[in-house]
């Protein structure tokens, strides 16, 4: 028992569970145990006073009252002792043991049956109510049993032969104690198993909740990386509806239109910026250099945009455009855009001065109103549309490198903040010339100072320029800007907590039992504050505290412990209970103990033997039903007519009504058989030992009543009744109200029998025990019927407390399991939402690089491909269709139609045959997609050209499907839109750039030429380059030559039209030649 008083070891997970178990569950029971003992002692005082008890008894009771009152006060008030709960439990056990031994020798003649019920109470409560581990509890229980047996055996061994036989009584006591130890250990094992399961479920729920919070943060960050916050809420509801309705589908709506998330904003300024000379520079870069260069450049621009309250909208190749005044209106939006444009020009000038690379910045700004939002179903990108946006784009295109080109509308809003000069007419493009509005170039106030400084700091190119390529030189310089990596903000979001992680280490190291119980009542200083995860951890532990059952809760009714939700209560009552068979088996052990005791202390009348024989058959039948599933192998080898037997145990486990009926019948059987021996008494209640002349015949009288019932069986019948009380507590999942009813029934029956109808038996036993001393009466502790009644009431209240405790934790275990399932489902939904969001930004094969356990933010994602087919498909007629008037809500209804077009195009991507098509972006009414991006990179692939470019046919089929979709829309909208498509294939570089709004894109000459194929194409035709025409010819498609055309930036190119009216043919067509 030295372990009981040993100090605790440093915290560990197991010790933490033990501490949680001691404080949250067993500590309140310890207080209740002390309270029950005190009430029992108090109940003895008036009885003893009425019976004029001897001073020794009163002294014992008063000393016990004082000692246990002190223990109760120390345990409940002295916080320092709360961390020494186990030593305190050992002290309580020792005090109870000492009290039991003092009771043995107080108040009269010592008998073998004295204080057996009290020691049984000590044994059972050691397991059920004291915070000891199983080994300590077994040690204490066995020690209590042996101490009673040894003390009485040694004391009563030398007694005269006139006393009843001692050995059968000691054997009966041993059976009682063995049953008490077994029932207590069984109760403790099941409760610890249930509590540990609840504890782990609570931790799993905590980890699941943390993971859920993490996924919510990921989802929020991802959503905000695509959309402004004001639009994100609406879009999130749309995504959730899609997930619930089935991924890829859209929720039912009252109309036939897709949801449109576009709003009009007035009073904004739009900035377009293009890096002049970047295309030539990019052609010299490796894939990694290109992606790094773009990320650093646009990352720097994002920083400038944030400083000047501008929102980046999109990155189109090397073109960057943003808006000020969204989502909240800003009075100085024009100044913000001009400042940003000037800062962008300065950054490029510094770059050029440091590296000697010939690049520049061209910026155009215009102020007006925009329609802003998201169109389509996939690859959402926040965008803006309006005539004012178009004008800003042309302002950039007709601008001067290194200058900010603004319109008169923007100049009016500057209010003289910057000096300007008229833009030369030759810089105007046809669109501006048609408008006829004057435009201006902003004079940078810092330009002169920068020119004076010149290259005083020394050019990087002068030191290393001659040794490295300009692209590498520029990349080296850009790295010093330190732009954030795409999705780097997700690294700062707490990563999902693995369910294998047992506990927060900080929580373990900082755990204090005193803090756990009293943290709600005491304030902690700043140094004692735990992080959010640990705080949530302790909140969960606090919810497991058994004292919560007496407080107001949103889940339970504090009086009945019923769930407040009727559906949950019904689900709990109808839940399966596989452990019922073990309850029945342990109850059979109690019944068997009662049988052995009756056989030891009675003369085994035939009627009693027959009754027990019938009851044994009933119990065996019950156990067979409960354990029939374990006989499946044997039954299946027998006749088919018996194959249904294993299903009996399943029925018992899953049918609540059947379980309640069997459990109640089992307990009632134990109750009835505990008092069966009294049934075989004669009808007369005359006691032969109460006659006046019996004193002289004392030594010659036997200890039996007429009818062959030994008097010593009377106290043992009471002890069997106590075991009947214990049998009721073995059904842990039996409802509290049913246990209360059965315990109350048994208490009433027991007290009625031993205090009323059969009270004369106790008086007869006393008369025989004190025969020859007529003036002497035993004390209260030696009065069988009084002590039996006291034992009944003590066990009744003790088991009632345990029944309430068991009910609470059975329901709590069910509640946590349900919460865990719900949180896991919610987490799965959030993970799907996060995945869907990320795949709306990145291709499916790229998304795992940035989320989950595979997230890698330490390096930029880039990949080069040798054969990618790029498609640009536009609806040029939409520019003429678009107008802004009050009739169409300033262009909103025009965008509604564009949204339908893009959304229908996106729906094609969900078809299995187009699974290899990856949407890249939409640019106004132009749709950009590519195939071949999910294949092995060109650097590693060892395939011939025909195999590696086989996906070109998929892209052609997709282009044809786009045209068919547009025809359907034309039919329903009474329009005559036609598609203009450009295709090209070849090597590209893919990557993810931009920290604020990460964006997947592809770059390279292949992309540029594909764009020119569309812009120089013909309505209703698919234009391709000569190389692509030959590749398609090898796949069975027919192409015919358009001839030589002039392509901007590429000179004269021979292009072809794809004959979409013909299906694939075998040999190459002559029209290609």
TrEMBL record:
List the catalysed reactions.
ATP = 3',5'-cyclic AMP + diphosphate
Which cofactor is essential here? Mn(2+); Mg(2+)
What cellular component terms from Gene Ontology apply here? cytoplasm; plasma membrane
**Residues the record lists as binding Mg(2+) 2:** 274-275, 318
User: Which InterPro entries does this UniProt record tie to the protein?
Assistant: A/G_cyclase (IPR001054), A/G_cyclase_CS (IPR018297), AC_N (IPR032628), Adcy (IPR030672), Adcy_conserved_dom (IPR009398), Nucleotide_cyclase (IPR029787)
Q: Which residues cross the membrane?
A: 29-49, 55-75, 87-106, 112-130, 137-157, 169-186, 582-601, 607-627, 665-691, 711-733, 740-761, 786-803
What PROSITE patterns is this protein classified in?
GUANYLATE_CYCLASE_1, GUANYLATE_CYCLASE_2
Specify the superkingdom: Eukaryota
Positions of ATP binding: 274-279, 316-318, 362, 921, 1001-1003, 1008-1012, 1048
Guanylate cyclase domain span: 269-396, 869-1014
Q: How does it sit in the membrane?
A: Multi-pass membrane protein
Give the cofactor note text: Binds 2 magnesium ions per subunit. Is also active with manganese (in vitro).
What main location does UniProt list?
A: membrane
Q: Write out the entry's keywords from A to Z.
A: ATP-binding, cAMP biosynthesis, Cell membrane, Cytoplasm, Glycoprotein, Lyase, Magnesium, Manganese, Membrane, Metal-binding, Nucleotide-binding, Phosphoprotein, Repeat, Transmembrane, Transmembrane helix
Q: One Pfam annotation, family name?
A: Adcy_cons_dom
A biological process (GO) annotation for this entry?
intracellular signal transduction
Any idea what job this protein has?
A: Catalyzes the formation of the signaling molecule cAMP in response to G-protein signaling.
This chain's protein is named: adenylate cyclase
Per the UniProt record, the source organism is Bos taurus (Bovine)
Gene name of the record = ADCY4
């Amino acid at each position: 028992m030295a372990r009981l008083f040993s100090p605790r070891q440093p915290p560990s997970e197991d010790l933490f569970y033990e501490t949680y178990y001691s404080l949250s569950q067993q500590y309140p029971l310890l207080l209740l145990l002390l309270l029950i003992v005190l009430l029992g002692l108090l109940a003895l005082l008036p009885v003893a006073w009425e019976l004029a008890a001897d001073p020794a008894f009163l002294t014992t009771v008063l000393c016990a009252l004082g000692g246990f009152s002190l223990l109760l006060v120390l345990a409940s008030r002295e916080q320092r002792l709360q961390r020494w709960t186990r030593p305190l439990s050992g002290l309580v056990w020792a005090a109870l043991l000492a009290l039991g031994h003092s009771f043995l020798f107080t108040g009269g003649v010592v008998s073998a049956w004295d204080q057996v019920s009290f020691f049984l109470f000590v044994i059972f409560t050691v397991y059920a109510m004291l915070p000891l581990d199983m080994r300590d509890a077994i040690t204490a229980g066995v020690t209590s049993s042996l101490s009673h047996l040894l003390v009485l055996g040694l004391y009563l061994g030398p007694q005269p032969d006139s006393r009843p036989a001692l050995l059968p009584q000691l054997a009966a006591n041993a059976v009682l104690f063995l049953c008490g130890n077994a029932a207590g250990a069984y109760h403790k094992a099941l409760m610890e198993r249930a509590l540990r399961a609840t504890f782990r479920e609570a931790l799993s729920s905590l980890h699941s909740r943390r993971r859920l919070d993490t996924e919510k943060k990921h989802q929020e960050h991802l959503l905000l990386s695509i959309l402004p916050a004001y639009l994100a809420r609406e879009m999130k509801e749309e995504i959730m509806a899609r997930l619930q309705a089935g991924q890829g589908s859209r929720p039912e709506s009252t109309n036939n239109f897709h949801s449109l998330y576009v709003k009009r904003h007035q009073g904004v300024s739009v900035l377009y910026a293009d890096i002049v000379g970047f295309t030539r520079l990019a052609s010299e870069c490796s894939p990694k250099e290109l992606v790094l260069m773009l990320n650093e450049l646009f990352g720097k621009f994002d920083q400038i945009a944030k400083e000047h309250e501008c929102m980046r909208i999109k990155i189109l190749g090397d073109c960057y455009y943003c808006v000020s005044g969204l989502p909240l209106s800003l009075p100085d939006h024009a100044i913000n855009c001009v400042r940003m444009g000037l800062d962008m020009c300065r950054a490029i000038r510094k770059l050029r001065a440091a590296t000697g690379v010939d690049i520049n910045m061209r910026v155009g700004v215009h102020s007006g109103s925009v329609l802003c939002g998201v169109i389509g179903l996939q690859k959402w990108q926040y965008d803006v549309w309006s005539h004012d946006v178009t004008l800003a784009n042309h302002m950039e295109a007709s601008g001067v490198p290194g200058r900010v080109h603004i319109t008169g509308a923007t100049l009016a809003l500057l209010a003289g903040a910057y000096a300007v000069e008229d833009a030369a007419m030759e810089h105007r493009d046809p669109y501006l010339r048609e408008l006829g509005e004057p435009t201006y170039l902003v004079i940078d106030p810092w330009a002169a100072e920068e020119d004076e400084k010149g290259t005083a700091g020394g050019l990087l190119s002068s030191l290393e320029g001659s040794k490295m390529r300009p692209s590498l030189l520029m990349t080296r310089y850009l790295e010093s800007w330190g732009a954030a990596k795409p999705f780097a903000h997700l690294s700062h979001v707490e990563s999902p907590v693995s369910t294998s992680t047992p506990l927060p280490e900080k929580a373990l190291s900082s755990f204090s039992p005193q803090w756990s119980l009293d943290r709600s009542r005491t304030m902690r200083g700043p140094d004692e504050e735990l992080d959010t995860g640990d705080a949530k951890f302790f909140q969960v532990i606090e919810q497991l505290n058994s004292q919560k059952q007496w407080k107001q809760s949103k889940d339970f009714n504090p009086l009945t412990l019923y769930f407040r939700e009727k559906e949950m209560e019904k689900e709990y009552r109808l839940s399966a209970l596989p452990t019922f068979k073990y309850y029945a088996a342990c109850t059979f052990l109690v019944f068997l103990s009662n049988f052995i005791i009756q056989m030891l202390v009675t003369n085994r009348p035939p009627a009693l033997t027959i009754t027990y024989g019938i009851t044994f058959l009933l119990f065996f039948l019950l156990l067979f039903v409960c354990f029939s599933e374990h006989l499946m192998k044997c039954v299946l080898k027998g006749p088919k007519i018996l194959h249904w037997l294993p299903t009996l145990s399943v029925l018992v486990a899953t049918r609540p009504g059947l379980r309640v009926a069997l459990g109640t019948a089992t307990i009632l059987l134990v109750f009835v058989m505990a008092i069966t021996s009294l049934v075989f008494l004669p009808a007369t209640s005359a006691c032969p030992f109460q006659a006046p002349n019996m004193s002289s015949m004392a030594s010659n009288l036997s200890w039996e009543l007429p009818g062959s019932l030994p008097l010593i069986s009377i106290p043992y019948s009471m002890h069997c009744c106590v075991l009947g009380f214990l049998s009721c507590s073995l059904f842990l999942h039996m409802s509290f109200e049913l246990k209360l009813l059965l315990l109350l029934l048994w208490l009433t029956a027991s007290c009625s029998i031993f205090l009323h109808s059969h009270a004369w038996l106790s008086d007869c036993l006393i008369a025989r025990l004190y025969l020859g001393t007529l003036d002497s009466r035993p004390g209260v502790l030696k009065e069988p019927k009084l002590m039996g009644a006291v034992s009944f009431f003590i066990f009744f209240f003790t088991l009632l407390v345990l029944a309430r405790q068991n009910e609470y934790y059975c329901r709590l275990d069910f509640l946590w399991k349900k919460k865990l399932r719900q949180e896991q489902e919610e987490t799965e939904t959030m993970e799907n939402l996060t995945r869907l969001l990320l795949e709306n930004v990145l291709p499916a094969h790229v998304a795992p690089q940035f989320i989950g356990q595979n997230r890698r933010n330490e390096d930029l994602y880039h990949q080069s491909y040798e054969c990618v087919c790029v498609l640009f498909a536009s609806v040029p007629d939409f520019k003429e269709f678009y107008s802004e008037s009050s009739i169409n809500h300033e262009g909103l209804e025009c965008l509604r139609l564009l949204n339908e077009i893009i959304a229908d195009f996106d729906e094609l991507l969900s078809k299995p045959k187009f699974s290899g098509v990856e949407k890249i972006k939409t640019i106004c009414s132009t749709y950009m997609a590519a195939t071949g991006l999910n294949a092995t990179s060109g650097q590693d692939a060892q395939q011939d050209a025909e195999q590696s470019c086989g996906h070109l046919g998929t892209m052609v089929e997709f282009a044809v499907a786009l045209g068919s979709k547009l025809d359907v829309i034309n039919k329903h909208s009474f329009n005559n839109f036609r598609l203009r498509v450009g295709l090209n294939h070849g090597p590209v570089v893919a990557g993810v750039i931009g920290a604020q709004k990460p964006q997947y894109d592809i770059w390279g000459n292949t992309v540029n030429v594909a764009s020119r194929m569309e812009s120089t194409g013909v309505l209703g035709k698919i234009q391709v380059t000569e190389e692509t025409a030959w590749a398609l010819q090898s796949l069975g498609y027919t192409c015919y030559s358009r001839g030589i055309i002039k392509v901007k930036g590429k000179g004269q190119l021979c292009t072809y039209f794809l004959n979409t009216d013909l299906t694939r043919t075998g040999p190459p067509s002559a029209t290609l030649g």
